[in-house]
Amino acid sequence: MARKRKKDTKANKATLPVMRPDAAGIDIGATEIFVAVPADRAAENVRSFPTFTQDLYALADWLKQCGVKTVAMESTGVYFALSSALFGRVKVPPALG
Predict the structure, then answer these.
(1) Has this prediction a pTM greater than 0.90?
(2) What 8-state DSSP symbol labels residue 43?
(3) How many Å apart are CA 75 and CA 56, to the nearest integer?
(4) Which residue from 42, 47, 64, 86 has the fewest beta carbons nearer than 10 Å?
(5) How far apart are CA 79 and CA 71, in angstroms?
């Protein structure tokens, strides 16, 4: 038997405060990278890119066009180098520095 859906209430629609409005989220896979920017920055605010060098440059260009100044992504050593290459500098949050 199917479950009944909960009715939408104000409590279910709570929103979190925006801490970094110029941030993007990146999910890095072996063959594809998914990137999300704020909804007001691009008509298609979630895109995927292959992991080849030319595609990483295209990803970086798109982030710059969208006004992204920082990203949140997986925190392994390999990808730390990627963020440095994309932005030319790496901002380390005060809690980690």
Answers:
(1) no
(2) S
(3) 18
(4) 64
(5) 11
